[in-house]
Amino acid sequence: MAGTGVFAEIFHEEVYKYYADGEWRKSTSGKSVSIINPTTRKVQFKVQACTQEEVNKVMEAAKVAQKAWARTPLWKRAELLHKAAAILKEHKAPIAECLVKEIAKPAKDAVTEVVRSGDLVSYTAEEGVRILGEGKLLVSDSFPGNERNKYCLSSKVPLGVVLAIPPFNYPVNLAVSKIAPALIAGNALVLKPPTQGAVAALHMMHCFHLAGFPKGLISCITGKGSEIGDFLTMHPGVNCISFTGGDTGIAISKKAGMIPLQMELGGKDACIVLEDADLDLVAANIVKGGFSYSGQRCTAVKVVLIMDSVADEVVEKVKSKVAKLTVGPPEDDCDITPVVTESSANFIEGLVMDAKEKGATFCQEYRREGNLIWPLLLDHVRPDMRIAWEEPFGPVLPVIRILSVEEGIHHCNASNFGLQGCVFTRDINKAIMISDAMESGTIQINSAPARGPDHFPFQGLKDSGIGSQGITNSINMMVKVKSIVINLPAPSYSMG
Ligand code: G3H
Q: Would you call 98 a catalytic residue per the annotation?
């Protein structure tokens, strides 16, 4: 159970502690932040409201610990990460329980998130050992005017302190996708979890603590964004920020200093459907892509752009699948569960009402109880409706009927987002042409968008982000290249 057994030390007098300098602490603020259960809409957990002074101390400790960590052999860093991964998987049940209560993730998906996270940590350890063990040797005579008298040895060195800010929808998985690459590359790590999901993240952090990482190397600060948000992201001790979330990322990128940024900021993933597509496959992927975790995934299908000639048939197939989705509490492992907050539910409702006023066809009756919104397919959506462009982050999916492929590509590319997209057709030549034309970081051919497997590159164009994630890319993003040049007194040619 959450907060008990090996996790008892992270909890005291109804408030979860924060993690600094290798120990669990209560904030000197004496204040806490409440986490509302999306299903009951009552306070479920409380976490410490940390102060700016506590942030300063965490940064100082991180700086000191990082120096020693950078001198720790790569294989030893990997060994500790493997240990943390095993502990994480061993304790999947209490961590999953937090995900169910804090973010209303369906019970089975919550367990999957923790197991996937353990696998991600192990894979990162293995990948790090391989790619960080390799450097480069350059010789000078390949550049015009030079003799072979300089040998350049380049290798990858850590950046320093990495600040990781994951989102509510994957507070464990999108935390470890930042933590593990940072650590294997020799960096220290400061985690600022989202408010909804903070307790799951604290449990996950305790697994790293139990694995025995050095004091101060990793820490987890909880609190109000208004009090410590900007303070953290603008802190001079931070050498890199990896953020996943919404528009806040754009603000962070404007305020952060001259440091590497990795940002994933949402999407309006388009699903283009051609006449020759396997329509059963299309319907299955629209439902899976549009409604899993109630549409609260940045890679969810967020607009269907379908050739008019097959639209009726696909809409009917999707409707019959939507009718079978179970709606209710995450504890019952329902397909559709309450969205994360009341304000999210209100925002989604605003998009639905706008579509209604402007004449969209409702394939189901709009129904909401508290934060629970029943799945809704909106047909005959037009570009003048907000839902055609905005991200509901909820179980509402617009269908726009198109008369040509070009119309679909045009709609996709007119979006300010460009995370993922998908195209359904049996013609691989058309699929490649359309994929190349869509301005998105990844296009899936004949499948719904998805980030995983976690070692695949994952990146957004335009307002969807900066940089590329995926295990290998994240490790490479959290290092810099350092060169040592050997200058010989006279040119030396091998075998010469
Ligand atoms: O919500 C954003 C996540 O990166 C999406 O991950 O495709 O595994 O659901 P997912």
A: no
> Model confidence over 343-364: pLDDT tens digits?
999 999 999 999 999 999 999 9
| Nearest partner of 124 among 490, 477, 391, 435, judged by Cα | 477
- Does residue 495 register a pLDDT over 90? no
| Percentage of the chain exceeding pLDDT 70 | 100
> What is the Cα 3 distance to its own chain's centre?
25
Instruction: Specify the pLDDT at position 144.
Output: 98
Phi, psi of 187, rounded to the nearest 5 degrees? -95, 160
Q: Is 169 in the pocket of ligand 1 (CB under 6 A)?
A: yes
450 in ligand 1 pocket by Cβ < 6 Å? yes
Atom 8, ligand 1: residue with shortest CA distance: 451
Closest alpha carbon to 170 in 41, 292, 303, 328:
292
Residue whose C-alpha is closest to residue 373's, from 321, 338, 399, 323: 338
61 φ/ψ angles, rounded to the nearest 5 degrees: -65, -40
Averaged pLDDT, 452-461: 97
pLDDT in tens, 298-308: 999 999 999 99
**Tokens 């101060």 correspond to what residue?**
216
- Ligand 1 mean position to 244 CA, how many Å? 10
- Both tokens of 204, joined, read 């996950």
336: β partners: 327
* Separation of CA 172 and ligand 1 centre (Å): 12
Q: Is 152 a catalytic residue?
A: no
Whether residue 496 is predicted with pLDDT greater than 90 in this model: the reply is no
Distance CA 380, CA 393 (A): 20
